[in-house]
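Notes continue from the previous slide.

Worked example: a multi-chain complex. Inputs as given:
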Amino acid sequence: MASARYSDLQLDALRELANIGSGTAGTALSALLGRPVDISVPNAAALELADAVDAAGAAEDVVWAVLVAVGGDLQATALLVISDHDAAAIGALLGVEPDSEEARSALEEIGNILVASYVGAVGSMTGFVLDLRPPASAHDMLAAVVSTVIAARSDGRDMAIMLDSELRIEREAIALSFMLLPTPEGVDELLERIGLGA
Amino acid sequence: MGELAVSRAPGEVLTSVGLGSCIGLALVCRRGRACGLAHVMLPESAGRDAHDDPVGAARPGKYADRAVPALLAGVGLLGARPTTLDAVVVGGAQMFPRSTGMEIGSRNEAAVRAQLARAGVRVIAAATAGGLGRTIRVHVADGTVTVREAGAQEVTLR
């Protein structure tokens, strides 16, 4: 979905970066989960932040959210959102209790792997040097976790890049909402580096 | 998010779902039925104008230093003066405990309380801070204000 700010071509490029990243992520998650993992080609959309809250799901739904701060040449916040139901499915595959510390750690690790994979793809295509902070997680209403991240990142120009993917693990399909909140300068620089500057 | 609403219609329930670090500020008139609710995201606009923040300019509730005056003006249009208002403050949590840069919840609460004090409006109840998300509901019919955390019972604050 193109916006006033990003053209279809630019969104396709971001989607392609995510696609490359999701290949690496699939391999790493397979190792973690001990089963083949397939990550679908993501949908990429640039959304105004309030719309991003709505796009991620119903405001009052309880979800697991994993947050990873990205620093270095690109400042961004990455947020992974998984429904309670799908998080429990992952937990079951790993043999952990749904609301336990082990489940939390597993989800944080999954978030870490996904962000590292996407960031790795960005780094290799752009030459950016990027680092990740340790993940933090929350288990609460969708609107509460997403709005908190958005408000913290907000610098007045509210734009989020949403990459929605589906994980397929054996016969289970698990929906992931992956939100990247870079600074506007960061995205412009990134697009510039891959030859699609405005 | 970043919005505000006022009402005097008895059937209405003003709601902000899933307040994390944001503050839901409810104003209830003790003498009429005027009520207002603002969803505040950030403590201050820092002089940003419509050019720097076109989205924020369209969302009067976004910054505490604009939201509180705007909400007071809104209930004022419905006939409620600041001295007749009860304020209830909900939210301002830190959703990601170990993460730095996500502590704006307490700054939001402080900014909203400071703006209310400037206007002479008393805060009669609050459900703030901690690590849990909250939903606030303002029942215009009788001025009841409730808060609910995920998986918990609704609690009446006013």
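Summary box: DSSP finds six helices and eight strands in chain A. The beta strands of chain A are 37-39, 43-48, 62-72, 76-83, 130-132, 136-141, 159-169, 172-182.
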